[in-house]
Amino acid sequence: MPRKIPNLAIEEFTKRQNINLGTYDYYVTSDRVHDLLRYFPLRQNSYVISICISGHIKLRVDGEEIIHKVDTLATFTPSTIIEGLEISEDYRCLLVIFQKSFLVETLNNIHFLERFRFLSKNGIQCKPLKEVEKDRLTSAIEIMLVKQKDKIHPFRRDIIRSLIIILLYEIENMIEADFKDQNLNNSFGKEKIFSNYQQLLKENYYKERKLDFYATKLNISKQALTNIVKNKTGRSAKKLIEEMILSHAKILLKTGKYNVSEVATLLHYNNLEEFSRFFKKNSETTPLKFSKE
Predict the structure, then answer these.
(1) Which CATH number does the domain housing residue 146 bear?
(2) What is the pLDDT of residues 86-99, one digit of tens each?
(3) pTM score, two decimals?
(4) Residues 109, 211: one domain?
């Protein structure tokens, strides 16, 4: 019969220090709290964000071995099974532990944490931190450490909750930046972005003419999108939008079913003059003359 894996509650993880501080569903620390992981696998019941500041720890997380070392960020989600394989004597980390109930109790949104991709499944495991990233995250956690000690502050829970939410957004932004850098620096990533742009264009060109819309949807800058499209087609991303609008406009005008004003409306132009200027600029004739040719 398989052995049941025990749950690692916050108070056990922190050696009951959180109970002493009255923080039953969250805890922030820079103390050594990982001795429990030396001997057997445990199933944690909280979210954990950890920044290693010295030494290292080797873990088996849901069957996969990872090493949490200096200047790396690790995050783990509830129900993750963790087993300590090797822990250096000088291992220390800044640790933020919280339960979902603590974070969402005043948000009126039980699905709030689902917006953070790095908190899905087993978290991000280990991510090397740039100097500026490390400084930003450690500063946020150090503020939490100070505020956690202020037991008489009537809004201590609310302040720390807000600080944790800010921390989550900062980490998500870092992960997104890594994702964009990875995509923009390899041919497969660029190919995928170009393919996604073409699909977005087919679905939205007649109503979305600004490059900002497409860049935002693809989670990259306008300049990066322009460079990728330029390399693939020899034309700018904006030019592709204009070509598709012009082609659609010509088809509608040639059917004879719509006058110029109706075509402008179908293509979501605010007024006839704006549409006429666009048409003449890109075809060297007016839409009225074109419809009569």
Answers:
(1) 2.60.120.280
(2) 888 888 999 999 99
(3) 0.63
(4) no
